[in-house]
């Protein structure tokens, strides 16, 4: 069998998995942001009609899943596998979504890198012939994240300047062996990078070195340069992390320039929406990908995208134990070209 | 490309991934149990020399990883991917293990099914040509689980008769495109099953229907019967869950008989070790597989094994919100035959 492994950490899809369908769901604040008109469904009610914020997360995932299936005229039974995860402890947002279905399910934990991780694994499974169609699905919710990772909302804690705002949103992608596309062309699997950042309110600085390492490995392994992409986006490094990545590359003589953006900066108006460094959460890169980015690719306004999900792999307990923040970044190259 | 997808939920490895190496680590109580002499390393100190139980979990994983690599004369750089997860919130046991390495890492969350889930995904990646060698790694710790999921140990809460005892242990498997074996032959991906059990101290009853569904799908999809295996093990249903699976099959006229065992019942002496229904935790099926079971396969005392990891996908918060317990079971068929 011809190997799809490339260089140190990258893979190439010899059979390119097709993105058959995609859908996004977002909350009120996201709806009022610059990408507000790119989401399939937005809700002014942050509980999405549910009794808890955690249940709201499951509701968003169910909605995104049903929309993505519906757009393609597919049903749950057409899915051979689901790759799902979220930020809630024990990834309950996803498990409670999939229990209502009969879809074979792999649970993932990649923090805010989950959409990229799930795309890679779905792509591997499809390209290897193990699935005919697979789902990549994730979500996050501002309120469920705040109380799990930080403080009860009612406490009214002050946010530091480097803090990010967890996106309330979900994204679903249905992939298959053939379809309209766009298509997964290649990917780079992240290693876990920890440069000693201990401030849990400065995720951007913690994750930026992971994004840099993955991007550099991607270019090296596949003999590519930033210019080979129309757009490179990182998951949710926010303003500070985005600057750090640009700086790390410029030290090596590589200018990323205006082709490099960050989903956390795209989804909110950083000047007007009081989100400090920008958006974060699994739902950030997922809802930006499954609305704005893949929408542009379908309309051929964007042809070659490098989508880099970034995740901070800490827990409140490791922070209490004085630990630094390990991070990961998975990169997926998406193209409008079938082969 | 020839499809490896079979029936509704199963896959067959057309190129069988080889188990190159494996290693297990266990704690004091496990060392004193019936399988005590099958673990590579046991520790009388449940902190494994670390300052917290959570850090002990990372220590166990690091030890299992280094042992598995060492047995095969491999180094971390020889691994193209790691598939890792554990029970700690945000899977920090695994992330903190892998941050010390340069191994591309996929984080998983499958609760106690993690070893089976990681074997399946490592197998898919290898068989599909995306990795040359991959790692499957997981752990659990009695003390870190008790305080995260139940009560502080110092509280001395009483355990109910259906409770299980979280295993302190870890298991690591290194897989590759070729090697001595045994080999992965096929697998069945679990759907998420929830029959409405709400008692978080009765995981066996919650998980048994998931094990039944996966086993039945496995037999149906691949036209197999229990007699096609020398041994069928479930992850950690414990005594009650094991009985329920036997009962569910007997209602359909299928007798599993003495070829069906449960890792949670094998690792402890249920009469003598005060563990109520038996062992549980990611480390339970992982350490039983990576010591006793794969050891027997290497010695050809066991030729055809169906290894079924079972996981309860609840969180303390979903229990507080009155939710029932979704469960999953992933099955991996392991054989001594290369093809």
Structure commentary:
The structure is a homodimer of 339-residue chains. Chain A is of the alpha/beta class and 339 residues long. Chain A folds into two domains: 172 residues, Peroxisomal Thiolase, Chain A, domain 1 (3-Layer(aba) Sandwich); 153 residues, 3-Layer(aba) Sandwich (Peroxisomal Thiolase, Chain A, domain 1). In chain A, 33% of the residues lie in helices and 22% in strands. Chain A is globular, with a radius of gyration of 18 Å. Chains A and B meet through helix 3, strand 6, helix 4 and helix 10 of A and helix 3, strand 6, helix 4 and helix 10 of B.
Spatial order of the strands forming the largest sheet of chain A = 1-2-10-15-14-11-12
Order of helices and strands of chain A: EEEHEHEHEHEHEEEHEHEHEHEHE
Report the span from N to C terminus of chain A: 19 Å
Note the total helix count of chain A.
10
Report the largest inter-chain contact: A-B, 64 and 64 residues
CATH-defined fold name of the largest domain in chain A: Peroxisomal Thiolase, Chain A, domain 1
Architecture of the largest domain in chain A, according to CATH? 3-Layer(aba) Sandwich
Biggest beta sheet attributes of chain A? 7 strands, mixed
Work out the number of β strands of chain A: 15
Q: Kindly provide the radius of gyration of chain A, computed on alpha-carbon positions and rounded to a whole number of angstroms.
A: 18 Å
Chain-averaged pLDDT of chain A: 96
CATH class category of the largest domain in chain A: Alpha Beta
Q: What would CATH call the homologous superfamily of the largest domain in chain A?
A: Stage V sporulation protein AD
Subunit organisation of the chains: homodimer
Helix content of chain A: 25-40%
Strand content of chain A: 15-25%
Integer count of domains of chain A? 2
């Amino acid at each position: 069998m011809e190997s799809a492994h490339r260089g140190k950490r990258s893979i190439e899809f010899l059979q390119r998995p097709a993105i058959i369908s995609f859908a996004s769901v977002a909350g009120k604040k996201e709806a009022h942001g610059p990408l507000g008109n790119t989401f399939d469904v937005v809700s002014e009610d942050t509980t999405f009609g549910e009794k808890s914020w955690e249940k709201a997360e499951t509701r968003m995932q169910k909605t995104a899943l049903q929309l993505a299936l519906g757009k393609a005229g597919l049903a749950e039974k057409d899915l051979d596998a689901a790759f799902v995860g979220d930020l809630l402890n024990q990834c309950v947002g996803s498990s409670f979504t999939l229990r209502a279905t009969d879809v074979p399910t792999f649970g993932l934990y990649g923090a805010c890198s989950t959409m990229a991780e799930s795309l890679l694994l779905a792509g591997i499974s499809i390209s290897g012939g193990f699935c005919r169609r697979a789902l990549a699905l994730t979500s996050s919710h501002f309120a469920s994240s705040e109380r799990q990772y930080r403080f009860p909302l009612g406490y009214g804690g002050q946010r530091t300047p480097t803090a990010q705002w967890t996106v309330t949103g979900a994204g679903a992608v249905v992939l298959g062996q053939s379809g309209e596309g766009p298509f997964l062309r290649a990917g780079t699997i992240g290693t876990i990078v920890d440069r000693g950042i201990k401030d849990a309110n400065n995720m951007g600085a913690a994750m930026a070195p992971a994004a840099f390492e993955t991007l550099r490995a991607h270019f090296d392994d596949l003999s590519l340069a930033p210019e080979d992409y129309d757009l490179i986006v990182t998951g949710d490094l926010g303003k500070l992390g985005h600057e750090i990545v640009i700086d790390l590359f410029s030290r090596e003589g590589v200018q990323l320039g205006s082709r490099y953006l960050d989903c956390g900066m795209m989804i909110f108006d950083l000047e007007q929406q009081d989100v400090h460094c920008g958006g974060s959460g699994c739902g950030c890169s997922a809802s930006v990908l499954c609305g704005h980015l893949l929408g542009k690719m379908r309309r051929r306004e964007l042809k070659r995208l490098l989508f880099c999900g970034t995740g901070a792999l800490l827990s409140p307990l490791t922070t209490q134990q004085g630990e630094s923040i390990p991070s990961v970044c998975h990169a997926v190259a998406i193209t409008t070209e079938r082969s």
